[in-house]
């Protein structure tokens, strides 16, 4: 997964993902595209190798986008931001 992927492979993925995403968007005439990369079982990774989901999206398709657990305050986000910055 993302956490184990060698850097030399990771830096080569960006252009390939972009090329595929553009082709999928054009080929399906999608209005947009979601890129999904599940890492670890808690995030929904079922197949234990690196793979990325490119999902064409259409206005009004009814699919819900994840927006967090709900109930988070601005202060909660600030605390999380500070923890992430410390981890960098």
Describe the protein:
The protein has 88 residues and is α+β, with helices and mostly antiparallel strands. 41% of the residues lie in helices and 11% in strands. It has helices at residues 7-28, 74-87; strands at 32-36, 53-57. The radius of gyration is 16 Å and the shape is extended. The protein starts with 6 loop residues before the first helix and ends with a helix.
Percent of residues in beta strands? Answer: 5-15%
Widest sheet: strand ordering = 1-2
Q: Unreliable segments (pLDDT under 50, ≥5 consecutive)? A: none
Rounded radius of gyration (Å) = 16 Å
Total beta-strand segments: 2
Average pLDDT figure? 91
Summarize the structure.
This protein has 2 helices and 2 strands.
Keywords summarizing the entry:
two-stranded antiparallel sheet; alpha+beta; 88 residues
Give me the secondary-structure topology:
Elements: H1 7-28, E1 32-36, E2 53-57, H2 74-87
Antiparallel strand pairs: 1-2
């Amino acid at each position: 997964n993302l956490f184990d992927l060698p850097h030399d492979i990771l830096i080569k993925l960006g252009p390939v993902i972009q090329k595929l995403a553009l082709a999928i968007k054009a080929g399906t005439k999608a209005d947009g595209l979601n890129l999904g990369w599940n890492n670890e079982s808690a995030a929904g990774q079922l197949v234990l190798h690196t793979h990325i989901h490119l999902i064409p999206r259409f206005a009004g398709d009814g699919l819900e986008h994840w927006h967090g657990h709900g109930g988070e305050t601005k202060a909660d986000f600030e605390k999380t931001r500070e923890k992430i910055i410390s981890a960098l």
